[in-house]
Write a structure and sequence with these properties.
Length: 196
């Protein structure tokens, strides 16, 4: 058999539950020689990453998380901006306990990603030049959050972009001017049980 370079194989099995799986693999060289082998794949269960116990900042915890993980943010005040990763859940201990302050919020205090859930948080800021939460273009859920202005106004939440967002059980704080929700091309958004 001639010398062949190693080849990395990759595939996605979205529906696999945690556990070990054995697959058959057959490699054929040209039209004559073939070799069969088995491959064992182990799927790890989702984990919970704690802030600040495991990571000092929310962003560090999100960066370390993988699809299916939960970033659980303890009660406290966190002055930072967060860029989400696909498939990660960002969860606080409640809107009256876990506070993310994005201050000027440019571009956003929390920038979404596909298949994310953001829940049980208070997000505050002065979004004169951005948004408190920006989910435009992402399949995402915002649930049981308080979006609270620390200035006279701005835009709390941006949605749309040919993606389905679920916005439920949230409260939007008062503002002298501005927009609570800006929806662009968002006829797929599910908006229910919010207080505006």
């Amino acid at each position: 058999v001639p010398n062949y370079s190693p080849v990395a194989l990759s595939t996605a099995y979205e529906a696999l539950l945690p556990g070990s799986y054995t697959f058959g693999l057959k490699v054929t060289y040209g039209n004559q020689n073939s070799q069969a082998d088995t491959v064992v794949v182990t799927v790890a269960p989702p984990k919970t990453v704690h802030v600040p116990a495991d990571f000092a900042s929310i962003q560090e915890a999100v960066d370390a998380a993988v699809k299916g993980d939960v970033v659980l943010v303890a009660e406290g005040y966190y002055q930072e901006k967060v860029v989400m990763k696909p498939g990660v859940t960002l969860r606080g201990e409640g809107p009256d306990k876990t506070i993310i302050d994005g201050q000027w919020c440019e571009p956003a205090a929390i920038l979404g990603a596909d298949n994310t859930v953001i829940e049980n948080l208070q997000v505050r800021g002065s979004p004169d030049m951005g948004y408190m939460v920006d989910l435009e273009g992402y399949e995402a859920t915002l649930r049981n959050c308080l979006l609270l202005y620390t200035s006279s106004g701005g835009t709390a939440l941006r949605l749309g972009g040919d993606a389905t967002q679920t916005i439920e059980f949230n409260t939007f704080g008062p503002a002298q001017w501005g927009t609570h929700m800006f929806i662009y091309n968002g006829d797929q958004a599910v908006i229910r049980h919010n207080i505006v």
